[in-house]
Structure formats: C-alpha cells, structure tokens
Design a protein that fits this description.
The chain is α/β, with parallel strands linked by helices. 25% of the residues lie in helices and 25% in strands.
Length: 266
C-alpha cells in the first residue's frame, strides 16, 4: 500500500491510498471543507521568458476568478528568487504574517504573476531588474495583464527586490515591501537577531552574492542599495516592518523613509 498527496491551486491538499502500482486510489482526507464558500482562480498559465542576461526562465500567471478571455486585469507581481514551481500549490485564503496570499488577490479580481529571478554576482538588485522587467513584458503578451495597473509585492528578500525595482523604473502603479533590506552597506554590520550572529555571511556566502565585504567591493554594494537611488522613486510604496523582526532590522525601513521625505519634501 502506498500513500500520496495531490493538490492544485484550486483544490486543497488531500491524502490518498493506492496499491503498489498507484491504481485504485482512495481519498482518505477531506480538507478545507469551507473552500466552496470562496471564488478561485480560473486557471494558471506558465510564461516562458528570457532575462536581459540571456537566462531562460519561467513565471506562473494566475488568472483572476471569473476570468473573461480578452479582458485585461489589474495584476500583482510577486517574487522570491525562484517560485514558478508553486503554480500548482494550494493556498487557502488567509492573511499571513507577510501580508501575501495569492488566493486573496485572485478571488478579488486580480491576476497574480510570479516570475523567477536568477542572480549575477555583485548585482542582487540589478538581477531583479534584469529578470522581472522582461518577465512582465512577456506576461503582458498573454492579454491578461492590464499594463497600466500593475503592482509589486515582496517580503524580506522579496521586499528588497521591490524597494530596489521602484528605484529603477516608474512603470508600476504601487508597491508593497515587507521587511526590506534597503542599505546593503549598513545591513552588513547589523545583528541577525534570530541567531545573535552578524549579517556578514548573508552578503558574502548567501543571498547577497557579493564578492567580499563592502570595503572590498564598495561600488557593488552601493549600486545595489535602494537607499542610494531613492531620489528616483515615483511609485507609491507601502512598507511593513517592526522592531521584533529577527532577520531584517527595522532601521532598514526607517532610514529610507526619512531620506525619501527629504528628497520629496516641497
């Protein structure tokens, strides 16, 4: 006897029992009994695209509930490195700690697009630009997305991508960044409170993908820090942060807000 699970974006995870050939499967769970109270995405499309650096990538485009062919919809664009593989993941409608839930958007008439991002050493911010913008261009060709009503949403590392993207382009109507890194130089020396260690390894051996410390690679750290480009921002930005975050210090949000106020004050 074998057990396995099955789900898709509209159907919750269920467990099945089957024989050794996976035949005669019997469903043994009944999850999310309230699911029929909600309206769900009308389907998912996989969008192929090429980054500005030549990488072949994909993005998951979730259609809004009650989708009508030929009609364009406001669209939320979300990312965190590679997430296109989540196109078949079930997400019950709820309000998560990050504020992100694709089913909340699709049930309220939005399309959701989740493109993949791959990274070039010394350019974590620019890598988002090189991947997300061509992904959006390709997704617009599907006819689903209203190119005049697109918003960005990211949290933590995705929040960093959001806060950086809006310094490089004005094409998005609004953006929401949760717990974003905004100054790669100051963040390098801050404490990662979840462990009590420093942030150095994050930048040199993990997501930052920088070669060396800031004093060894200053131009790259500065080039990829949103705070050094804040004067270019035209997109309304909602920031979510708090002083109990164990990963990204809240000063990363407060400092860029204060600098933005200086640049944009009359």
């Amino acid at each position: 006897m074998l057990s396995f699970s099955r789900e898709n974006f509209q159907v919750p995870t269920e467990m099945f029992l089957a024989d050794m050939n996976l035949k005669n499967a019997v469903q043994v769970t009944k999850n999310a009994p309230d699911k029929d109270k909600y309206v769900w995405s009308s389907g998912v499309r996989l969008v192929d695209y090429t980054s500005d650096k030549g990488a072949k990538l994909q993005g998951a485009l979730f259609l809004p509930a009650n989708y009508e062919e030929g009609k364009k919809y406001p669209t939320i664009i979300y990312y965190y490195e590679k997430l296109s593989q989540t196109l078949h993941n079930y997400a019950g409608p709820n309000f998560s700690g990050t504020g992100w839930n694709p089913a909340i958007y699709t049930s309220n008439g939005y399309a959701v697009f989740i493109p993949d991002i791959v990274y070039t050493l010394d350019d974590p911010g620019m890598s988002a630009v090189w991947c997300v913008l061509p992904a959006v261009d390709e997704a617009i060709k599907t006819g689903v997305i209203d190119e005049n009503r697109m918003g960005l949403h990211g949290h933590s590392w995705g929040g960093y991508q959001t806060s950086f993207l809006i310094t490089q382009t004005p094409r998005f109507k609004a953006a929401a960044a949760g717990a974003p890194l905004t100054n790669m130089i100051s963040m390098y020396d801050l404490i990662y409170w979840n462990t009590g260690s420093g942030n150095m390894s994050i930048f040199e051996a993990s997501q930052g993908r920088f070669r060396g410390a800031p004093w060894e690679n200053w131009e790259s750290y500065e080039r990829n820090s949103p705070i050094y480009h804040v004067k270019n921002v035209e997109t309304p930005l909602l920031m979510l942060h708090n002083d109990k975050d164990g990963a990204v210090d809240f000063t990363q949000a407060s400092s860029i807000i204060m600098l933005y106020a200086v640049y944009k004050s009359p």
